[in-house]
Write a structure and sequence with these properties.
The protein is of the alpha/beta class and 577 residues long. A hairpin with a 5-residue loop joins strand 16 (388-391) and strand 17 (397-401).
Length: 577
C-alpha cells in the first residue's frame, strides 16, 4: 500500500485535503453508542465539518493565536474541532476527562483560554464541577453541526447562533493557512508533582512524528477502535492523524465495559489497536475468565505451550474461537506509555497477535519501537528516523533530538531550559543498548537509589520483576539509607480500578488477613530470588487504601507514596526473609 509522504505536507490541513481526495467515499470516523453507529464520516465529511467549526470559532470572536480548551469524550466531532482550529488559527488545549478540578483550573489560568468546547452525553464532563464555569462554553457537537439553513430545527440548541453568509467558504479560503512552524496545540502533562506543564506542539512536529510512525506501522488498511483519550498525543498521532493519512477506519466508543469493547471489535472487524499495557492485561483477564467459565484451563494451558512452535497463521487457527470473539481480523497491538511485561506480550503472541512495543513522550513523540517482523520482549526497539537518540555517557539518560522535539513549555522558560539543552530533549529516563542495538529502559533518573556502597538501584527494574511474579501494583522506595522496601496493593488488584473492575474486598477476618500477608510474602521471596544481591527487598508494606494516588494518566504519584512511607507511623512493615 503506497502511503502519502508527510514530508510533502506544509500542515495537517494538507494531510486532510489529501485524504478527502484520495479516499473519497471511504468511511474513516464513526461513533458507537447504545443507539448504534453515529456520525459515520468520510475524510471529506470531516473536512467540511472542520470548516464549519472554523467559521463558528471566528464568529465567536476567537482570533488566531487564541487558546480553546477541549474537554470531551472521544467522538468524531472532536477531530472536527481540532482541524477547525487549524483553519481558524486557534490553538487547542485538550483536557483529560480524569483531571482533578484544581488541575483544570490551573490549566485554564495558565493557558489564558476564554472558551471551552465541551462534550455532551451521559459520560460528558460538567464545567461547574470541573471549576470551569467561568469560561464561555459551547458543545463540541455544535461547532461542526449543519448550518441553520440546512437543518429542520434551526434553533441551534446549546450551540452557536451565528449567520453563514452565502460566501462564507470563499471567505474561509482567504484566511492564512498554517505552516510547519505554526503552533497547533498545547498538551499539559500529567504533573506527578506540582503544576502540569504545557507542551507546545507545532504542525511540523506532528508531521515529523507521522514520518516516524510511517516506518513503524505496517502499510495496509487498518480498522481500529480508539480506547485511549483523544486528548493524548498517543491517540492523536498514531490513531487520528496517521489513521486519516492512510485512510484507516476509526471507531470511537462511548462505553468502556468489556462486553461493549469485545462487541465493537467483532462488529468493526478490527485489525489493529493502539493500547497501553493495562488494557492488554484487562483484555487477557477477560479471555482467562471465559476459559475458566468453560472449564478449559488445562486444555488452554497446553495449547499455549504448544503454540510457541507454530507460525502465527497456525496459532490463529489453533485459537480460532478466541479470534472469533475478537472479530477474526485482529493481527496487531501497538503498546506504549508503561512497562509491558514480557510474559503478557508472549501470551498474546502465543495466540497469534503481534505486540509492538514503543517508547516516547509528549515532548518528543515516538523515540523507538519494535516492528511487526522484529518484536523481541523486554525492549522498546530501535530509534526511527527522523528521530535521533543518544545516551548520556555518564548517567545513561536517554537524550532525543530531531524535528519531533517540542518547542518548549507554554510560558515556562525555566522548565523548558531544564530539559531542552543544546538541541536535545533530556527525557529523565535511563536506558542501555542491547547486543542487537535495541533500546532497553532501566528507570528514571529522579528515582535512582544510590546505596551506601555506591551501587545504583533502579526501582522500576524491581517493580517489573514484582509484576512478573504477581505483584503488579507496587512502588519501590529507599526508606532509610541502604534499606529498600516496596509498598504494594493486593495481588488481586486489577491493573485499572473501574466500576467494572473494582478493587478486591479487604480481608474480613484475622485469618483472611494472615493468608493475604503470607501470599505477599511468598511473592516478594520469588522476586528476591530473581533479583541481584544489591536489588533485593528488605521489607514490604500494604498501601492503606484500595488504590495508589494517581495522575489523570494513571501514573502513580510516587512522591505521595514516598512521603507516606517516611511518616512516623505509616503502618506495619514486614521484613522480607
Amino acid at each position: 500500500m503506497e502511503l502519502p509522504d508527510p514530508r510533502t505536507f506544509e500542515s495537517l490541513l494538507d494531510l486532510l485535503d489529501d485524504a478527502a481526495q484520495r479516499y473519497e467515499g471511504r468511511r474513516q470516523l464513526a461513533l458507537r453508542t447504545d443507539e448504534g453507529l453515529q456520525l459515520p464520516w468520510t475524510a471529506s465529511e470531516l473536512r467540511q465539518r472542520a470548516r464549519l467549526a472554523a467559521w463558528r470559532m471566528r464568529a465567536l470572536g476567537l482570533n488566531p493565536g487564541d487558546r480553546l480548551l477541549t474537554w470531551s469524550p472521544s467522538t468524531p466531532a472532536l477531530p472536527a474541532v481540532y482541524f477547525g482550529a487549524m483553519y481558524a488559527g486557534v490553538v487547542i488545549v485538550p483536557l483529560d476527562l480524569r483531571m482533578a478540578p484544581e488541575v483544570l483550573r490551573r490549566i485554564a489560568d495558565s493557558s489564558g483560554a476564554r472558551w471551552l468546547a465541551i462534550g455532551t452525553g451521559f459520560d460528558a464532563p460538567d464545567a461547574r464541577e470541573g471549576g470551569l464555569a467561568h469560561l464561555e462554553a459551547r458543545t463540541i457537537e455544535s461547532f461542526s453541526a449543519d448550518p441553520p439553513h440546512e437543518r429542520a430545527d434551526a434553533s441551534d440548541e446549546g450551540g452557536v447562533d451565528e449567520a453563514f453568509p452565502p460566501d462564507w467558504e470563499a471567505q474561509l479560503d482567504s484566511w492564512e493557512r498554517p505552516a510547519r512552524d505554526s503552533l497547533f496545540e498545547v498538551i499539559y502533562t500529567s504533573g506527578t508533582t506540582g503544576m502540569p506543564k504545557g507542551v507546545m506542539l507545532r504542525q511540523g512536529t506532528i508531521l515529523s512524528t507521522l514520518e516516524a510512525i510511517s516506518q513503524i506501522l505496517p502499510h495496509r488498511h487498518h480498522r481500529t477502535v480508539s480506547l485511549l483519550p483523544a486528548s493524548h498525543l498517543f491517540d492523536q498521532a498514531p490513531v487520528l492523524f496517521f489513521g486519516t493519512m492512510i485512510g484507516a477506519d476509526i471507531l470511537y466508543l462511548r462505553s468502556r465495559t468489556p462486553k461493549v469493547i469485545f462487541d465493537a471489535l467483532a462488529e468493526h472487524r478490527v485489525t489493529t489497536m493502539v493500547v497501553v499495557p493495562q488494557l492488554l492485561q484487562l483484555f487477557w483477564n477477560g479471555i482467562e475468565r471465559e476459559v475458566k467459565r468453560q472449564g478449559q484451563e488445562k486444555r488452554f494451558g497446553r495449547a499455549l505451550s504448544f503454540a510457541r512452535f507454530l507460525p502465527y497463521w497456525a496459532r490463529r487457527l489453533l485459537f480460532r474461537r478466541i479470534h472469533a470473539r475478537l472479530g477474526g481480523h485482529l493481527r496487531l497491538f501497538v503498546s506504549a506509555a508503561a512497562f509491558l511485561p514480557p510474559a503478557l506480550q508472549e501470551r498474546w503472541e502465543r495466540i497469534g497477535i503481534v505486540v509492538l512495543q514503543g517508547y516516547g513522550a509528549t515532548e518528543c513523540g515516538p523515540v523507538a519501537a519494535t516492528r511487526e517482523h522484529d518484536h523481541p520482549t523486554g525492549t522498546v526497539g530501535k530509534p526511527t528516523p527522523p528521530v535521533e537518540v543518544r545516551l548520556d555517557e555518564q548517567t545513561g539518560e536517554i537524550l532525543v533530538g530531531g524535528p519531533t522535539i517540542f518547542s518548549g513549555y507554554w510560558q515556562d522558560a525555566d522548565a523548558t531550559a531544564s530539559v531542552l539543552r543544546d538541541g536535545w530533549y533530556h527525557t529523565g529516563d535511563i536506558g542501555r543498548w542491547d547486543a542487537r542495538g535495541n533500546l532497553v529502559l532501566m528507570g528514571r533518573t529522579r528515582n535512582i537509589i544510590v546505596l551506601p556502597n555506591g551501587l545504583n538501584v533502579y526501582p522500576e527494574d524491581i517493580e517489573n520483576v514484582l509484576e512478573e511474579v504477581g505483584l503488579a501494583q507496587a512502588v519501590v522506595l529507599e526508606t532509610r539509607p541502604g534499606r529498600i522496601e516496596v509498598v504494594v496493593l493486593s495481588p488481586d488488584a486489577p491493573p485499572v480500578i473501574t466500576p467494572n473492575n473494582p478493587a478486591p474486598d479487604p480481608p474480613s477476618s484475622p485469618e483472611e488477613e494472615r493468608a493475604l500477608h503470607e501470599r505477599i510474602d511468598r511473592l516478594v521471596k520469588q522476586a528476591n530470588a530473581r533479583l541481584g544481591q544489591h536489588q533485593r527487598l528488605d521489607g514490604w508494606r500494604m498501601w492503606p487504601e484500595s488504590d495508589f494516588p494517581r495522575t489523570h494518566t494513571l501514573k502513580i504519584k510516587r512522591d505521595t507514596v514516598r512521603d507516606w512511607a517516611g511518616a512516623d507511623n505509616p503502618l506495619q512493615v514486614r521484613d522480607a526473609d
